[in-house]
Structure formats: C-alpha cells, structure tokens
Specification:
By secondary structure, the chain is mainly alpha-helical. Helices cover 83% and strands 0% of the residues. It contains 3 helices and no strands. The longest helix is centred in the middle third of the chain and has 30 residues, at 36-65. It is extended and about 60 Å long.
C-alpha cells in the first residue's frame, strides 16, 4: 500500500509539473507582454480560491453524507465540469492561430 501511495503521489507530482510548464508556456505565448502580470496573478489566484471553497463546502457535505457519497458527488462534479469545459476548450484551441517563434535579434 505504501508503494502504491508513493507511486500515486509521484504521478500526481509529474502531472502537476507538466501542467505548470504547459500553462505558463501557453500564457506567455497568448497574452500580450504588458498584460502578463495581471494574467499570471489571476490564473494563480483562482486555484487557491477554489481550494478554500472546496473546504468550506466539502466539510459540511462530508459530515452530512459520508465519505462514499462525497466521493460519488465529487466524481460527478468533475465529469460535469469536463463536459462543460471540453467543448469550449476544443473550440478555443481550434480557432487559435498557430504561434511562430520570432528569430532572435542579435
């Protein structure tokens, strides 16, 4: 069980690292330079707000429904969010012009 837990944490850490690199790269390629500070601040503020909301809603829900039902509810919530975001993301990425790197000056 410990080896399985370590492997799960390692996979989560690798995924989080890839996500950070991908998100930062996409933001830097898509956002004008003068707006990068605002966008990075906004992008990195929302996960903390979502985490606080999850604790505020999750704790009473856990007390009322129990751990098994909270797992079911959270899984359905993830699937619902994916159902909403996947088509929007697909359309947004489909319309986005391909970025080309400018040659280095100098």
């Amino acid at each position: 069980m410990i080896a399985l837990a370590v492997a799960g944490q390692a996979a989560a850490g690798i995924g989080a690292g890839w996500h950070n690199v991908a998100a930062d790269t996409l933001i830097q390629q898509s956002v004008p330079a003068e707006r990068l500070g605002v966008v990075f601040g906004t992008v990195y503020m929302f996960p903390y707000a979502a985490e606080a909301l999850a604790y505020a809603v999750g704790a009473p829900l856990l007390a009322a429904a129990g751990p098994r039902w909270v797992l079911v509810i959270s899984g359905l919530g993830v699937l619902a969010a994916l159902g909403l975001v996947a088509p929007l993301l697909g359309r947004a990425l489909g319309r986005r012009p391909r970025m080309r790197l400018a040659p280095a000056n100098g």
